[in-house]
């Protein structure tokens, strides 16, 4: 079958229908208001390119240096030509048209939206890279489907997959066809703050179809809502000059000027805000994590058009590269807008009005443009900051700016007219301001290579604390930013992100590419982080991905189909059951030690008792790692491991580290992925704290270090508890390191004062 209906699609069908369609199927099943429709499956695309014989030439065409702008453009053009100029088989065309006709009277307007199989993943946002077409009818439907297929090879998509390590020939694309919502107003909503994760719903709204908001073509109204009270904390009513609407005569989507009486009018009523809050909570509860939602209002009804996980909270905000003088008398203030991506940076303005201007953007420049475009990503990576005339903080390009860690201020109104090429400015992506001149510093510049190279990023000096403060790193690309926080090391580097980025299960990758290639892939990723932090310690956790994540990869059909993967075949139990793959991981560590990366530490996840630890140690010894010479330890994530920590310590570990996400769910019997019990998930529950406290006491008595690397380590109340109990180190998310340093300093100071009073 070339098509599948949304009502039959679930998240487990990601490889068949792509991220967008899988999400829409989930929302439909959850009873949320989703326009009906169907999906042209990813298998249909794959069969099309293979049976037409264009697959090899297609993948060869996009095998280019993605940092070369000209090569990238040529690759995109050739790929597009190959796909759109190849005839779609008649049986596929007929099935698509038949599905369309069954949706109405044969004249229904539909939205045609790309849905790639590597899209909206937990650790990366591929948002905005593929095409969407609105107000499509039967005559153009199949052509638009082909255009969506071709958009899998847009310049930005090619570049981004290269950066994330997704092989082009292993990513497919499905296409969603939905009844068109003739929106009177539309926009986007973050169910939690996209940078900090604070419990605030952020809504952006504009007149007409939502394409104007997500593309950044218009500066939308902005509403920040307290999730607990439902109160609108702040509201910014923008001047909305343009809107996208359906032309009544042609049926095509056109750009029109907003009528004068609506330009400065508030878009949403209080009732509509309340309804969006209600739906936003339901969406987040369903998925169990913060969501980025596209919505529309038509005929008084609110519709959910798309939902994807927010991928930027953990990577969080970056701060200034030097200590900033925050005093501002206003004389140097040039522009204000919305802070779309946190951080403070200075550089020379580079006005970009055409895509061919991007080659003029040098390392450290500030890109100033009317709106951020998807094809600007390679230049954005070189830029110190981004400033735009139009757009909102929830536009797709702004999301990518946050992921890249590039400060951005959007919706400034006249940045391209106010600023001049070559002008030196400072961009504050937190406050949403652009100031004249470079960042002011209190300290003289430091020559590269001195000890001060590792000074923390930001305006606050790093406190000297007895309790170490480390940082969690999800992907090697974040290593440099993480190192600039001034953290005392890495408390958690997740090796599964390196493995999942290969696009194949470890077994399939080794079968296809060989064990040597697998070992080298792991070495490359871990080495990047080890180099960025050397000589500070980097604690690397061996593989701990549940089977539902592996099932989405090539070779995933051989994985167990588990009812609750969180309680299943993962962590050390999987590693010990598949010793050959496990020892390839350990081989990567051995070679890195031999290359001089003495700062690496090995950590084994989800151990149950001392026998698990003893078995893991034997595998270390089997590949030539001496446990007496290298620092190694385990995660305490189960009640059994906490209660039996004395036996674990007896096996010779140097440290134990709490994984509070798993420990909490196992102590409280709360599946952290189950929306029906998510309100019961509480890392600060007395039972969880008691188990952690007893474990710390036992380890201190045995002279073994203790740490925490779970999400709760960033919570002030958890920090207070752990420091008072005498934990050795706390590892926090990148954006929380500075705050945790300050909280640790405060608690330690109070303990000293209490001891002398």
From TrEMBL:
Cross-referenced PROSITE patterns: PEP_ENZYMES_2, PEP_ENZYMES_PHOS_SITE
Record field: catalytic activity: pyruvate + ATP + H2O = phosphoenolpyruvate + AMP + phosphate + 2 H(+)
Ranges where the PEP-utilising enzyme mobile domain occurs: 362-432
Cofactor(s) listed: Mg(2+)
Matching InterPro entries: ATP_grasp_subdomain_1 (IPR013815), PEP-util_enz_mobile_dom (IPR008279), PEP_synth (IPR006319), PEP_util_AS (IPR018274), PEP_util_C (IPR000121), PEP_util_CS (IPR023151), Phosphohistidine_dom_sf (IPR036637), PPDK_AMP/ATP-bd (IPR002192)
GO BP term, example: gluconeogenesis
PANTHER family in alphabetical order: PHOSPHOENOLPYRUVATE SYNTHASE
Stated name of the protein: Phosphoenolpyruvate synthase
Source organism of this protein record: Haloplanus rubicundus
């Amino acid at each position: 079958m070339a098509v599948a209906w949304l009502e039959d699609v679930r998240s487990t069908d990601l490889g068949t229908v792509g991220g967008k369609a899988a999400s829409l199927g989930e929302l439909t099943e959850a009873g949320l208001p989703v326009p009906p429709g169907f999906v042209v499956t990813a298998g249909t695309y794959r069969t099309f390119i293979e049976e037409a014989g264009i697959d090899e030439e297609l993948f060869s065409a996009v095998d280019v240096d993605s940092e070369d702008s000209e090569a990238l453009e040529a690759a995109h053009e050739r790929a597009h030509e190959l796909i759109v100029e190849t005839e779609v088989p008649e049986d596929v065309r007929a099935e698509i048209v038949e599905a369309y006709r069954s949706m109405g009277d044969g004249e229904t307007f539909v939205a045609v939206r790309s849905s790639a199989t590597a899209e909206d993943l937990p650790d990366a946002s591929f948002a905005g890279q593929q095409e969407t077409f609105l107000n499509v009818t039967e005559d153009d439907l199949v052509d638009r489907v082909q255009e969506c297929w071709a958009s899998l090879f847009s310049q930005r998509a090619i570049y981004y997959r290269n950066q994330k390590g997704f092989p082009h020939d292993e990513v497919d694309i499905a296409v969603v066809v939905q009844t068109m919502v003739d929106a009177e107003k539309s926009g986007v909503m973050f169910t939690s703050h996209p940078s900090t994760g604070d419990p605030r719903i952020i809504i952006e709204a504009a007149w007409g179809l939502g394409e104007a908001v997500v593309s950044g073509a218009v500066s939308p109204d902005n509403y920040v809502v307290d999730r607990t009270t439902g109160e609108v904390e702040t509201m910014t009513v923008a001047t909305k000059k343009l809107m996208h609407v359906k032309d009544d005569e042609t049926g095509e989507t056109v750009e029109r000027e907003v009528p004068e009486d609506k330009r400065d009018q508030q878009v949403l009523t209080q009732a509509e805000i309340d309804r969006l809050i209600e739906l936003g909570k339901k969406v987040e509860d369903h998925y169990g994590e913060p969501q980025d939602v596209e919505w529309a209002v038509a005929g008084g009804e609110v519709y959910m058009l798309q939902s994807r996980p927010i991928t930027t909270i953990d990577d969080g905000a970056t701060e200034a590269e030097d200590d900033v003088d925050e005093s501002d008398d206003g004389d140097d203030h040039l522009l204000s807008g919305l802070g779309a991506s946190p951080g403070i940076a200075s550089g020379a303005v580079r006005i970009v009005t055409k895509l061919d201007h991007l080659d003029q953007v040098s390392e450290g420049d500030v890109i100033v443009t009317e709106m951020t475009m998807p094809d600007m990503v390679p230049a954005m990576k070189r830029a110190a900051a981004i400033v735009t005339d139009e757009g909102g903080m929830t536009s797709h390009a702004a999301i990518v700016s946050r992921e890249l860690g590039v400060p951005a201020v959007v919706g400034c109104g006249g940045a391209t007219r106010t600023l001049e090429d070559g002008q030196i400015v400072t961009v504050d992506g937190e406050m949403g301001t652009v100031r004249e001149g470079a960042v002011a510093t209190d300290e003289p510049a430091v020559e590269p290579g001195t000890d001060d190279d590792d000074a923390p990023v930001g305006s606050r000096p790093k406190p000297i604390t007895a309790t170490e403060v480390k940082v969690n790193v999800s992907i090697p690309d974040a290593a440099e930013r993480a190192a600039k926080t001034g953290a005392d090391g890495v408390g958690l580097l997740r090796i599964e992100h390196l493995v999942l980025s290969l696009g194949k299960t470890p077994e399939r990758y080794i079968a296809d590419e060989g064990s040597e290639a697998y070992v080298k892939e792991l070495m490359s990723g871990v080495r990047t982080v080890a180099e960025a932090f050397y000589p500070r310690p980097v604690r690397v956790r061996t593989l701990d991905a549940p089977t539902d994540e592996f099932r989405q990869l090539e070779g995933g059909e051989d994985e167990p189909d588990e009812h609750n993967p969180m309680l299943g075949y993962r962590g050390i139990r999987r590693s010990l059951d598949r010793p050959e793959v496990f020892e390839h991981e350990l081989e990567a560590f051995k070679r890195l030690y031999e290359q001089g990366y003495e700062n690496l530490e090995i950590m084994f996840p989800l151990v149950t008792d001392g026998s698990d630890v003893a078995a893991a140690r034997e595998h270390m010894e089997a590949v030539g790692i001496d446990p007496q010479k290298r620092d190694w330890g385990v995660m305490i994530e189960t009640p059994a491991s906490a209660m039996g920590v004395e036996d674990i310590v007896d096996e010779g570990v140097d440290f134990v580290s709490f994984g509070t996400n798993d420990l909490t769910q196992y102590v409280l019997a709360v599946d952290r992925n189950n929306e029906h019990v998510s309100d019961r998930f509480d890392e600060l529950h007395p039972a969880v704290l008691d188990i952690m406290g007893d474990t710390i006491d036992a380890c201190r008595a045995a002279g073994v270090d203790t740490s925490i690397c779970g999400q709760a380590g960033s919570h002030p109340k958890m920090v207070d508890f752990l420091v008072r109990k005498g934990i050795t180190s706390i590892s926090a998310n990148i954006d929380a390191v500075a705050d945790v340093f300050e909280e640790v300093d405060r608690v330690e100071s109070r303990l000293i004062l209490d001891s002398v009073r």
